[in-house]
Amino acid sequence: MGEKKLEEKIGKVPEIFKELKETDPDLYGSVMGLDQMIWADGALSRQTKKVIAIAIAAALRDGHAVRAQMAGAKNLGVSKEEIEEGLRVAFLLSGMPAYVHGKTALEEYMGNRPKK
Question: Looking at residue 12, what DSSP letter applies?
Answer without folding.
Answer: S
